[in-house]
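Q: Is it fine to ask for two folds in a single conversation?
A: Yes, each is treated on its own. Send the first.
Q: Here.
A: Result:
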Amino acid sequence: MKKILEELTHIHGPCGFEEDVAKYIANRLKGTVDSIEVDGVGNLIVNKKGRQPGPKIVVAAHMDEVGFIVKKIEENGLLRFEKLGGHDDRILLSQRVQIKTSKGFQSGVIGTISAHMKKFDDPQKVRKTLCNAQLNGSTMTPFKSSTSGGNLNI
């Protein structure tokens, strides 16, 4: 059980992008259940018939996790992102992240533009949270933020 939980926590599955988690669960259950299907919105529906008549039970759980999605890659390479799910912004700064790209995972660190580089009296210049990473021309995909192994995974 511990190994399965460890494997599950290392799969990237931010809100709206849970396909890898669903594939993992479906593969683990193949051969032990009567049917496995994924509906139009990505729900994994598994059926196991009982050996005797009796009450039916439902086991329900969510597969997604809080994460981020890259909205823009700045000319200087910094990433602008938005949250997927509920995050406490106070814990994000200086967090190491793993960013899922078309070429695999890349490491980065969440930061912000220094306060002395901003005008405090200009409401249009709000403090933005950014991610610094070397992406080498990769295409960006949503990223995960659950902590595992000391990293936030993006």
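Q: Second one now.
A: Result:
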Amino acid sequence: MTVFWAVIITLAVLLIRAFARPNPPQGPATPTPMQGPAAPTPTQILADRFARGEIDEEEYRRRLATLRGSDDDPHNPGDGRTGLPRSQPQARHL
């Protein structure tokens, strides 16, 4: 009879401890590159600033050319869609 009560008390203590304990964190404590939203690229940040009106078109084109490592004339923006000069073909992604 004593063994029976010892088992019941042990189970009760274990259950209370299991439910009273906060859940342990799942996975690594620090975020990995695959977690959360990706950080915006410099080109995306620049496009957002242009869209909000923080910079004008000339400044946008000049900074975009700088980001792309080009010494293009900011007064010759290319085709007007991407900021690429007309002589530089666009990359095609399949």
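Q: Anything structural to flag on that second result?
A: Two points. The mean pLDDT is 76. Residues 2-20 form the longest helix (19 residues).
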